[in-house]
Amino acid sequence: MSNYTTPLRLYVTSDLAVGVDVELSTDQARYVVQVMRRGAGDPILLFNGRQGEWQGALTSLSKKSATIHLERQTRPQENERELRLLFAPIKRPAMELIVQKATELGVTALQPVITQHTNSDRVRTDRLKTIAMEAAEQCCRMMVPDVCELVALSDAVSDWSEGDVLFVMDETGGGDPVADVMAETAGRNAGGISFVIGPEGGFAETELDLLRSLPFSKSVSLGPRILRADTAALATLTCWQALCGDWRRDL
Amino acid sequence: MSNYTTPLRLYVTSDLAVGVDVELSTDQARYVVQVMRRGAGDPILLFNGRQGEWQGALTSLSKKSATIHLERQTRPQENERELRLLFAPIKRPAMELIVQKATELGVTALQPVITQHTNSDRVRTDRLKTIAMEAAEQCCRMMVPDVCELVALSDAVSDWSEGDVLFVMDETGGGDPVADVMAETAGRNAGGISFVIGPEGGFAETELDLLRSLPFSKSVSLGPRILRADTAALATLTCWQALCGDWRRDL
Q1: B9: which chain A residues are within 8 Å (Cβ-Cβ)?
Q2: Which member of B104, B178, B245 has the closest CB to residue A242?
């Protein structure tokens, strides 16, 4: 056992229960053993998005493989409210930032959408999935958000259920103040909550018309300054959590 | 005159008035002429943080110099509420992100502070000033926030006036929900508003004791997940603007 007492926290897909041995992926084993220099007996936390968080001890390990022997559950699974972020692909660093920060802010699904002013029609979802996983591990979340494949904006907003709400970040200033709109929504609906953020060049006029015309959409303004797409995405999720989500005491 | 009709927007220190010729810095001239390929006659917007925003036309220009002949004021100067962000130096990309996003979110002063768990005692304020300037240019703000020199945390919180408030982002979960604390503060005080964010390792216990004991401080919680320092900084400023600041309709 080495001198590390703060357990690393890793996402795995295996089932978790007392006494189970979980083998880490090659990448995770390399991270644990070579990068973080953990040794036999060191504590590791695992979660799989279904069965809570478990603590175990590193048992057999080599440079490329490592097994965790599970000892006890440290946290039960928590159900999270569905929060879906629709965003147009933007430059890679800003897009990766959206995925990392949105995960910290509790998003459950990240849906890239093609818009008229989108200058990229390629999204490396595998890379974004890894970023979401690492962010979930670090921020102590009990699940990893889905990173969906790129679809057209119109397809992403075509299928809705009673009670769903889509907040449209209207960069033309046409929406109502975000705090007013969200406060009005809080507690009133039991459906899924989605947010849509335009590309750096903004939505095309026809896209804004489409979004505004949806019966479940609400246009929102994020103040007098022109926010970058990544800033707008994080600001929107922050407002939701602070006003209606799990940052409130009563939820 | 080239085909560019959207004016570039630049911050300058010179006085601005009808008919004045403003010479750009070498860096700005290079950006305008070589990077953005603007030519004689093209429109440029200038602001200086004191006399509003002005439109002018590019006149004499070479690869390294350019002059703008001012034609008309496009926006009056706006006074902004003092919003000061105290933050511990963190890794460079995350620190630069704080400066860029905080500028978009309306911060007026960025104050790096040395804390016990700060792993860097060097901050390149010149570089951060450039980032703040570029962000102000892009987000259409009328001023550029100050980037102050690094000081000890205790010095940064030693001088306060009646009505000032310091929001302490308490990552131990000891604070009240951010929306409640801010809603309570809104409209009640006319002093300066500050926010303090700890380093990646969190504040030391003695630092939290100091901050909590200040008569003008309010501890705030940002929910159940562990946010990175940069996420916490942006989330705090977002909540302020949405609940108490210039994202509200009535301000």
Answers
A1: none
A2: B178
**Each residue's pLDDT tens digit, B199-226:** 988 899 999 999 999 999 999 999 999 9
What is the residue whose two structure tokens read 């590791």? Answer: A44
Where do the domains of chain A lie? 8-75, 83-243
Pick the CATH number of B8-75 from 2.40.240.20, 1.10.300.10, 2.160.10.10, 3.90.420.10: 2.40.240.20
CB atoms within 10 A of CB B93: 11
**ipTM of model over 0.85:** yes
* B220 at interface of A, judged by CB pairs closer than 8 A: no
**Residue keyed to tokens 């599970």:** A70
pLDDT in tens, A198-250: 998 889 999 999 999 999 999 999 999 999 999 999 999 999 999 999 999 76
Q: Would the CATH topology of B8-75 be identical to that of B83-243?
A: no
Contact A225 B178 (CB under 8 A): no
- The CATH class of A83-243 is alpha beta
Q: For residues B207 and B156, give the distance between their C-alpha atoms in angstroms, rounded to a whole number.
A: 12
- Determine which of B167, B176, B230, B247 to mutate to test the interface with A (most A C-beta atoms within 10 Å): B247
d(CA B56, CA B69): 5
Evaluated on CA atoms A170, B82, B244, B96, the torsion sign reads: positive
CB atoms within 10 A of CB B226: 16
